[in-house]
Queue: 4 jobs
Job 1
Amino acid sequence: MPERRPFSLLLVAPALAMVLALFVYPLGYSLVSAFTARDGEPTLDNFSKTFDLYGADIVFTVLIVVVSTALTGMFAAAIGGYLVLAAHPIAATLLKWLYRWPLFIPFIVAAQCMRTFLAKNGMLNNTLDTLGLVDAAGLSGLLDWRGIIVTFVWKETPFVALLVSGAMAALDRAGIEAARNLGAGGLRVLVEILLPQVAGVMTAGLILAFVTMLSVLSVPIMISGGSPTMITVDMAFRVNSYSDYGVANALGVVSYVIAGLAAWVYMRRNVAGEGAQ
Amino acid sequence: MKAALGWLLRGGVLGIFAFLIFGPLANLVLWAVAIQWYFPHKLPLTYGLRYWGEVFKPTSDAFVSLGTSILIAAITVLVCLVLAIPAGYALGRRLLPGRGLILLIILLPQAFPSVAIYLNIARLFYMVGLNGTITGVVLVHAVHGLVIAVWIAAAAFAAVDVELELAARNMGASALRTALTVTLPLAAPGLMAAAIFVFLESLDEFTGTYFVGVPDITTLPLMMFTASLAGNYQIAAITALILLVPSIAFMLLIERFLNTEMLAKVG
């Protein structure tokens, strides 16, 4: 119904205006602010200051997010693969019921759970100690970079696993059966047959998880107060303690670039995939 | 023998997995019912619900912030639906020129790391006096909720059969009447799902409220955060459990919808 087009634009206009005013405009504002000195002159000082003060935190952030994303992908692949290939329906049903729990748990609640679970006197150390596997007195807890990674992986794995197992379940089973008949083991079927076919869904899910991890402020503050920390914490600190929007926004630009690189990897993959077809 | 070993192995791995999923939650529950618990005791020394009484006192910070959270979430749902229903209709029916571009712009907030966006919104809101107001926090929650609301609404309207609308129009119903009595009721389940998603997202939102809500608006997540950093683990745990209730209820509720077919439609 092409004659209704102008009217249709009116229907989306309010939503579009909202996103333009409260997302695109602040985004532009942050880009301009990152390249502007306090006196309004254009400058790169904010960036040199950012790399001087927070260079280590930028590296720390990238490492944490990359490692967390990789682990999330591995666990999601393992869960999805087991659900599709498992010979034991009971075990598969149990796993299916188990893995989804963290999906709708808010990050801030996950952070509070882990703040106690991973502490020196938390349930993890205490359980291992009770089982006689470790001596809790000598352990320090995991409330540092390791705790951040554990929390991110715990929170993001169900989401990616849900997407991946859905995509795997929709695949043609003939290929799997053929590989099985030729003697391929479960792991080999997962790596060589299943994963290549769901790579697109997997990458899309992992990119969303990657950007989410770059956006979370509560987890690094609550899990690891010390230094080095993630750049989200530095941004909040720069604004709250010094009202230094220049450096905070320069860090923001760094976070866009990191997310942009991840998206670029995704796009390149897609283009390569289309070229192959 | 081999089968028994296999089950032992499977049981062991599933057991460890269950511990890793539920351990953190169990630790939270323990803190919620602990009165006294300090190092090196592995379990609380005394149990009780004393802190629950403190949290649910009508004058307590937690009770007030629960009210604020629900109020903000309810208004956010209204704002999102009012914006997302017409937008979702136009996008779902593919009536638009430049549909891809418009969809891309509306999905953008999900694709960028958001902390830098929020701190600039806070700076802009400060200039117009929206910082520390319910309106300001609702606007921030709504722009984020809009992504999911428009997406689901578009899918819901795309699933409504156009033939039914045409039939109503042929029998003399006006466009408005058709929309209200045919299209909207058929899309209602999808719109309901969108509303629940937006409500939960608003209820759980932390970062945006942290920047825009200060100093006057304390939602439940902010209050939990403050309690946790101050070492009030009981209060933090009880607040966290309150936040968990709607999330878990929602998960169990949509268990049956959360399957491949639904995800395929949304994508």
Job 2
Amino acid sequence: MAEKTGKAGQGKAPNATKRLRLGLGVMLTLLLVVGGKLFLVQGLDVGGMAEAALNSRMTSAVLPAERGSILDSRGTVLANSVIRYNIVVDQRVNTKTDSYKRYEPQADGRDKLVDVSRDQAISELAAALGMDTNAVRDAVTGQQPYYIVAKDVKPDVEDRISKLQVPGIVAEGVSKRVYPNGAVAGGVVGFLQDGATGLAGIEQTQDDQLKGKDGKRLFEIGADGLRIPVGLDELTPPQNGKDVKLTLNSDIQYFAQQAIQSQADKLSAEWGVIIVMDAKTGNLIALADTNSPDPNNPGLVAAKDRGTRSVTAAYEPGSVEKMITAAAVIDEGLASPLEKFTIPPTYTVDGQTFSDAFTHGTEDRTLAGIIGYSMNTGTVMAGQRLSKEQRYDWLRKFGIGEAPDIGLPATASGILSPPDQWDGRQQYTVLFGQGVSQSTLQTVRAYQSIANNGVMLQPRLIDSYVSPDGTEEKVPAQPSRRVVSDSTAQQVQDILESAVTEGEIKDAGIDGYRVGAKTGTSESPCDDGKSGYCGYTASIVGMAPMDDPRFIVEVVLQRPKGSIYGITNGPVFRSVMSQTLRTYNVQPSTGEPARMPQYAK
Amino acid sequence: MSTAAVKNFPIVSGSSAADTRPAGDPGAGRKGRTPLSVVRTAPRKRRAPFVVLCFAMLAVALVAVLVLNISVSTAQYQLVELRAKQSSLTKTNQDLTQQVQSFEAPQNLAAKATELGMVASTVKGQIDLSTLSVTGKATPAVKGAAAGAVIPAPAVAGQQIVPPASKAADASKGSDSKGADSKGADPKGAAADKAATPDTGKAAAGAPSADAAKAAAGQAPAAAAAAAPVPELHGGSVPAPQQKVPGQ
């Protein structure tokens, strides 16, 4: 029985084994085929399937860095960037879609699918954009895949348009630069070219700080437009630009701009400039220009008006330069404020004759009186005690011929030729501000060193950079330098104050505050290539309060019409200065005003 | 058992069975065979619970994956929705900030002051309280005096210079976080204002808070419903989208 069973088993076994092996072989072959294909597809990616799939899923988006703002000293925004939309159409899609369906909210609160014809969509779009229906129809009809229907649309309009779901219409977000204060400090702030690159003013010079760095996002997106949560998501965050904080005060800036514009309009001047500076820090509080551009639309004003004339326009300053001559002779010990000068009606030296703006006989004047009545004759008489080199060195010391660096483009350095190139007349005219040119800011800087007791501080316009995280990085002041001694500065201050109390500039006086000032009237050379002079430059520069000078204000008017001797910038100076004093809560002056006698006994 | 297994199974044959018999016990050979009896099979280990457990675990794992997937994609949708809300709030905020900036611009302020009949004072006086001294001669400002040059208002595209007429409408527009367009919000706010004024002074005060505006809107369903049949076009050609009113 047992044997039989064994025989039967041995007879069947090869068959079963063969079948088993065959099956196993088939399976292994199939596995090999499948495995091989898998290896080809997954491992080697023949035909680039995986890559193609990844490419179609992978989307990269540029994350634009936000351009920094420009602020005034109190944080008032002078320039910032906002979101605007360009409404763009794929004309091919729109043109061939005669009608489409969209959900519209109904009165009962439910959305209903409604049919909208192309004509209706176009008229709705036109109404939302505030454009003419035919203009919109022209814009969306055609074969162009990209056509801009409207630019710089505000977010609420964009919202309304996206609800219309017009086929082919897409809103593209763009950054738009806006200048909420418009023409106030417009020339200083500057403007952008095609919304990206600074073209003028602070926008130009501080472009690197303001711009920031664009970021990038790399992610996988499904066909339904949703990001695949488990897919790759690589984010390079954008680095927003820094804010630039200026030293300006937009209220004073407005006041000054309004004042100089009124004055220039009244006297039909070519242009005018007002600078307000804090003498203690060198901070510029206002840089006012006439016809200042509105950076929102700089094309409205002429190209020559789009800059900041306070720093770009160099002109012959005229009598304001007499202060430098007086400071030089006092500091060199060659004269004192009350020293007596006997002045003839005209004064001739080296064959050069000088006269004054008013006719007079032979008078006994003090140096203070020479400055107070702005006499060319007396200035030459006192100034000729300096050698030519000394005159040059003193002008250099006061920053003439040296461009101030305040971060504005096209800063003028003026023209101060070396003494060996001076001709017979120029060597004396430089003493009263002819034959030398400088910008208004250079004049203000020279007066600042007298106001600050002899120490010249470089003017500052950019106060700090504010990083996106809020840290404020102060721009350090440039090195200061001593120009004249403390006592010289004090004597010159007294001379300037006497010019207001005793001299000719009485209309610059402010009730309650002691004021020192100096006027300047110079002949202005023609700038269209003609020889000779075309009109005058009238200016006044002063400081207050004289017990401890805090502010410098200079008013300049280029080529006003009418008789130059009837023109005074005193009232403009006074209103801007008193507004500044009041804004900064400066205490009324104490102590007796300096009253240096103008005539020597 | 398969045949192969049978083949390999060590079969105990009769002769070898005899070999295993203890040698020193010949008498025992004659002993009768043990009668055949039914041998109960050893209790087999039951497999069923294990299989069930496997399937259960599989099901649990699948459900877990499903739940996880659903929650992840729901979160993704939620994220998209919140992003949209954030961006709409950002836009609203930016819009309002711009309006404030526009009102604050010095030339706009000056223009508004002139419109209200204000004149700038020119000469100031000071009183020193510690010394009781008066400096300066303060003179009253003269009405109608030449105001001087006018600095043009900032030409920010699309920025209105004059403040909106209705504060209630402005408040409801501002509080509308969903960013509904102003065309829709304006009639609602105006209607709310109209309805609220005779009833309570609360909303009429025009407090620019969202609560006040909402309260006003809540009190106004009748007025809003009454106003609904006539399509207000406000000079445009598209009727304002219908607004849901709370309580309807």
Job 3
Amino acid sequence: MNETRANAIVTVPAVAVIDEVKDEIEDVKTFYFSFEDEAAGKAFRVRSGQFIMCTVFGAGEFAVSLPFSPEDDRPHLSVRQVGKVTCALHELGPGDKIGVRGPFGNGFPFDEIKGKNIIYVAGGIGLIPLRSSIVHVLQHRGDFGRILLLYGARSSKELMFRYMIDQWKKIEGFETYFTIDNPEPGWNDRVGFVHTLIGPAAVPVKDTVAIVCGPPVMFNAVIKELREAGLKDDAIISTLERHMKCGIGKCQHCAIGRTLVCTDGPVYTYKQIKTLGEHI
Amino acid sequence: MTMHILPKAGLCRLTDELAERYALYGPVRREVSGEVVFDLVSDPSEISLDAPIPNTPPKSVVFPQAERIMSFSFDRETKSASIERDDLSVSKALVGLRACDLNGLLCLDRFFLGQEYVDEVYLDHRKRMFIVSNTCVHPFPQCFCVCTDSGPAATEGFDLDLTDIGDDYLVLTGSPKGEELVRKLGLAEAPAAQAALRAKAVDASVCLFDDQAKDNKAWISRAVNRITTGFIPYEVWEYIGHQCFECGACSFVCPTCSCFNIEDVAAGEGRTGRMRAWDSCSFEGYSRMAGDHNPRKPVEDRRNKRFFCKLSFSQSKKYLRPGCVGCGRCVRVCPGDIGLPNVVTYIRRETIKQVPSE
């Protein structure tokens, strides 16, 4: 058991304070938070790619990925309002409190991908869970080869974190490719689904891993394209989403075939995903 | 392990003694309906060791159908939040557990306590428990524990085990706690000739299992093999899926089904209670996410997951045995006739069809 698992808040949530709320794209807000109890804050150490169970008092609890880097980054959540609990979260402001359990899940491999080229492929808010890995990798820029971000959304308004990507672009060797689904006035970049960026980006294949996150339909198209480009199944990594209630491998809602996304995942290689025996 | 004699008339001494220190649970025959349930008893004499296998397993003792596990409040005016865990730990004695149900309980133990994380809510219920199992000296009509290696007698997990040998019970001790109680009650050690009667009673019971159980006996392990390797045509799951009413009854009466839902509900005085309640993988909402994406929409996708859970090797690794204990309750409650033995039969039928003819 790694250190972050041993320290996880398992059953009773720790109280956290929302320090600041930032509007991102439509229906998506970022909530910066800190723990009410300083010791809980110190013990809360994460790996990029892990998730927490977030309680909105009076509404319920939901699983949400952590977008912040394990090092030198402000703890926050970026959440789209979709269901009952996320809508209740969006009603909250600075000073309001939430409950936090976790962190849970395996997280993105960091040591294993050191020295390699990394292709991040994201669709829409699929960029949120990838952010922690992107920032972490950029914090260790020298340990990696080419770093590419292939990012698509339905419209230019739905591209997340553009102000942040502008900052990342200043880092040498960080390449970005954007696309939106349909033409728009004022949009001079590419138009089409995100898998169409794989050709134009001339993605590296040798010593390369691709980290993919987005809606299932995008995922399948991207995987097909990456494999055609020559990436092996175990060099394609994704983070999966499932309905979750406990986060600790007990409620079973997140079962995909033989694995549980909460404890075995949420990060899987495509090689593993193929053996799960269920649609993703 | 030592064997002792308890005259049947002295059973109340055992249950009274346990009732002193524990909340007492056991099989009880309901007065009006005649239904047998496994429940909390107010009077130890209510416990009936002759009663048929209860309609419900003792699962709800360690994993209640619905319970509040904690409550919280948040006052937006003062910004003060409080979270309080509910105390769920009560010392319980379970008397008259059938071997299948004890094995089911051990499956739950291994699943809730033995994996990566310990389920603290389950642990609260499970710790400080005294277990008295009861050998099935004859099987009940739906039973097939002989096929799943979980009966008719218990082999582990009990503090005391009782076997009916006529006028007396043979009492087998299984733990220091059990030894202590036997000493306290001053039960005489069984002479060798009598102690040997337990094994005899078990053998006699095995011979009484009906044809259905014998028929499926070899095939449960074959089904485990087939389900694990994914070597079952999708049409078989479709066939089973078409018979499923999605009522969830099989999950609710299963001694090893342990899926649960969590819901936060108003608890009065501005507080919110976190409720944990049984769930079933046969329900369509089980895997549906916010935004309506549902990876397991067709009923057969959901249905085969239950049998995967009961019979696949990967799940067996969590239980350290197959997830089915052969109690046969799913057979009794399923309105679509897809209790586990029938599923095994369908898998068997399909497999035989696949054998190429010469």
Job 4
Amino acid sequence: MSAALIEAREVTKVLNGIVPVTLVQGINLAIMPREFIAITGPSGSGKSSLLYLLGLLDLPTSGDVLIDGRSTTAMTEDERAEVRLSRIGFVFQFHFLLPEFSITENVALPMRARGLLSSRAITARAEELLASLGLGDHRHKMPDQLSGGQRQRVAVARALANDPPVVLADEPTGSLDTMATSQVFGILRDLVTVHKKTVVAVTHDLELASQMHRRINVVDGRLAKTGGMAPSLTH
Amino acid sequence: MKLVLTIAWTHVRRRARQTLVAIAGVTTGVGFSIMMAAIMEGSQDDFIRTLVDALPHISVTDELREPNKQPANIIYRAAEFHGLTPEVRRPGIKNPMATIASLRSWVPGALTPSVQSKAVLRFAGRNLTISVIGIDPRTEADVSNLVSHMRQGTLASLYRASNAILLGDRLARKIGARVNSNITLASAEGATMNATVVGTFHSGFRAADETTGYVLLKAAQILERQTGIVNEIRVRTRDPMEARLISERIGEQTGYKSISWQEAQEDLLSAITIRNVLMYTIVGAILLVASFGTYNIISTITHEKTRDIAILKSLGFRDRTIRSIFIIEAVMIGLVGAILGWIFGYLLTRGLASLEFSNPFSDNNHLPVLYSTKHYLLATGVASISSLVAGYFPARAAARLHPVDIIRGAT
């Protein structure tokens, strides 16, 4: 059995249309526990598509994605949803918080969907996560009462709600200013170093990518180059 | 489930204006449906009740279901005869008292003999053709509501004079006759009789009140020039709805034409059935239109919430959970609309029932309505199902959304 948390085997994604478009082609990739990986590449190269395939948000046209060594190709949509709920946390470029719910309720949503904890325990954990990301004083606020950086931190808290081993982030700092970028990146780094999580982040920012364990460069849907580990993050 | 309810409730609550419009649609639909059903069924019940009260439940007349066969036809069955003079049959029910006694032994209800006759009424230079009904005042009260319809005099007043008559109040007014006025009756059989008006009645049916007079059996028999004749036995059954079955049995036993009120009014009852089909079609259409409002609001919410749906799915929400959210929103709208519709429908019905207007055919000057739980439950059922269907399709579409497409679109 593979020790990889997520493994892509010959993963190809083709968008069928009048002119079929290949987003990702023949990618083989293994993501190990406690890795901090950057997926880089030019716009339209297929890096976000790869992330969605790794996170089971999308189905490959061919190939397989294994989560904890389990093939996901033959899984039903419900089984894939269950894996997303329990094993993977997502952070997107835009915070994508539900505007009608307070930030605590937003963080609580994945826990409530999973249904393992009592309401009180869910609220306590949501508040604890928010507090750990410096948002303890804002827990009753609505998303539109927060700044962009704060909202993205709430999105990170929501991704961590069910304590998944892997967090997949799609341009998590893409819409933030320098200070917020630094804060969010610091949080993601802490997830790896402090909380022992695996973080895979799509980014355009090569400077940030250079600070991560590994850099996967995607060009025209293929893996172009895999970079080495940043010295500061060496275990 | 609690989570689904919370999300659904938040959606409808945050879109208060749209939600209220959708609820108003369902409320209006349910309210008008209840009102329509109350009026239609109320008027139908009122009509049938009046009909049942005004007419005998069963009328056994001296007509035969099939004409008598000629003796030659009975003897030579294989032959066909033409040009024979038909056998003249003496009108009236044979041995009426024995027939009545025999029927009384098993018919659940009351029976009374009567004589139906036509006569020309002459008074103060006016000639009017009227129906003269010969009755037995002692048993008439058991079969008809004539006692309660009396305005002046009583049924027993018929015994006051040798040839006494009770006139419909409109008829009396029309000819200017009063109690103790002397009128003349001339029958088609050539009999003429002077009669004294001893009372008036008012049945509420204009046709009856303008053209009917009641006399004693004996007086009607004189007009028909046949002593002892009874050409109709009227029956009032304990349960009016059993009249048809009892009537069939009476017909089989006596051989005479026995007609239940349902058979007599078959055309009207068929018309009522058609009216009911129309009513429920209209009610269904109203609720269908209301369901479009629900469909619209759920579609709008779904459309506005595509990004949220994508996020929920990316978090690991299952398709059926997403579907449930929007179906529950539709059901919430449907149920709240239906409950408000009950109140609206009740008030509308009350309002219409309180209006006064003149009715040329009867004395009832209020719209007859029927308050029935069935109408409320039916309207709620249809509204709920409509809302469910209206919510299902947008909900299904929402659950089928591909999160990647939406996330890509948003980024």
